[in-house]
């Protein structure tokens, strides 16, 4: 009898829930992407609606077929991006005590500093080999120019934590310059997303007056073991994410295609990597892809040990107002089906809890915000 070899699978975790996908090769391979498309975003600023529509058609195809694309010519100042990376590198090089003053365990929304191996997206690993700093929407930080909203919980209290030590004084203004630039670009991108979904450009404006947003600055030291992971395979659970990554000579960020093959996302200077996340997949009735991705800062077997490079990245996560109610867009619904409505903030909390429970059950690792 001829024994059939076991199907090889690639494993990942989606919001703490384990998933696996067969690795398909040869005749069994499906049509899927083998690279991440590059889209010239300059038309986002064009006064001509037809230019913006043409851009939206490209963006829509990438969101459907890949869930990831490079945004080139996005208009965010390159010196600002370089300056933020410099500040992020300086921040992670600070004394441990200065970073621990803002440990994320001290806040409800896990804002602040996260230490090495404290995050654990893939329970099959010893933890994420990274340290990070998370900030986000905060109605009390004057840099955000927001007025506390009495009908929302805790908008008159700080949500962020900032280091108070003088050696870290450079960090907050640098992060805020980046945050505000990314927020402005995200609002434009959201209008392109609306066009790509055959909606009026301003369709999402009313639910994004005080959006849920985060910047996470991340430092991935070089891995010495291939079984480690910088961030375990996952999907993001906001609407969409923009990532700026520092240069490494080998691709550290990888995206999983439908055949279970990891597709590298090479460093492209000053570009953003845009990815659709779970909530936008949900709102589009699954038409857009929230694609599994991971980071492995491992130089590969071909390199001598110790030759790895430090990697830094600065994901910006975007979602609508925490009190917005959303569901599958009306024109994308199937007849006869009923659709649940979600409060954006509650959806987040639910996802957070799934993650937290999964990790705590294992008795190791901590929760993840996205
Ligand atoms: O560091 C990166 O390139 C991506 C990080 C990421 O996937 C995340 O924080 O959700
Ligand atoms: Fe991610």
TrEMBL record:
Record domain Fe2OG dioxygenase: where: 208-320
Domain of life: Eukaryota
A GO term for molecular function: oxidoreductase activity
Pfam family, one: 2OG-FeII_Oxy
GO BP terms, alphabetized: small molecule biosynthetic process
InterPro entries listed in its UniProt record: DIOX_N, IPNS-like_FE2OG_OXY, IPNS-like_sf, Iron_ascorbate_oxido_reductase, Oxoglu/Fe-dep_dioxygenase_dom
Alphabetical keyword list: Iron, Metal-binding, Oxidoreductase
Family: Belongs to the iron/ascorbate-dependent oxidoreductase family.
Protein name: 2OG-Fe(II) oxygenase
Origin species: Periconia macrospinosa
């Amino acid at each position: 009898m001829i024994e059939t070899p076991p199907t090889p699978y690639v494993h990942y975790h989606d919001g703490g829930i384990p998933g696996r996908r067969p690795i398909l090769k040869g005749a069994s391979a499906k049509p899927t992407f083998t690279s991440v498309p590059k889209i010239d975003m300059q038309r986002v600023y064009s006064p001509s609606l037809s230019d913006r529509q043409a851009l939206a058609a490209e963006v829509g195809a990438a969101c459907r077929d890949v869930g990831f694309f490079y945004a080139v010519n996005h208009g965010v100042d390159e010196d600002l991006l370089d300056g933020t990376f410099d500040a992020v590198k300086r921040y992670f090089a600070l004394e441990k005590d200065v970073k621990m003053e803002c440990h994320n365990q001290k806040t409800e929304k896990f804002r602040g500093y996260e230490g090495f191996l404290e995050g654990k997206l893939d329970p099959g690993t010893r933890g994420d080999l990274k340290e990070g700093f998370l900030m986000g929407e905060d109605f009390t930080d004057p840099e955000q120019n927001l007025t506390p909203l009495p009908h929302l919980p805790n908008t008159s209290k700080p949500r962020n934590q900032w280091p108070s030590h003088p050696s870290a004084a450079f960090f907050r203004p640098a992060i805020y310059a980046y945050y505000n630039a990314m927020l402005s670009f995200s609002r434009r991108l959201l209008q392109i997303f609306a066009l790509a979904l055959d909606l009026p450009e301003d369709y999402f404006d009313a639910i994004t007056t005080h959006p849920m947003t985060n910047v996470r600055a991340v430092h991935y030291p070089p891995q010495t073991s291939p079984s480690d992971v910088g961030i375990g395979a996952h999907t993001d659970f906001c609407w969409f994410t923009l990532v700026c990554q520092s240069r490494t000579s080998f691709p550290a960020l990888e995206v999983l295609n439908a055949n279970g093959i990891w597709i590298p996302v090479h460093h492209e200077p000053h570009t953003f990597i845009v990815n659709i996340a779970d909530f936008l997949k949900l709102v589009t009735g699954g038409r857009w892809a929230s694609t599994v991705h991971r980071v492995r800062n491992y130089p590969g077997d071909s390199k001598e040990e110790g030759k790895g490079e430090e990697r830094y990245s600065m994901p910006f996560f975007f979602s609508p107002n925490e009190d917005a109610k959303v569901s599958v867009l009306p024109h994308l619904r199937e007849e006869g089906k009923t659709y649940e409505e979600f409060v954006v903030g509650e959806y987040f909390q639910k996802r957070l809890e799934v993650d937290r429970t999964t990790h705590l059950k294992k008795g190791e690792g901590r929760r993840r915000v996205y």
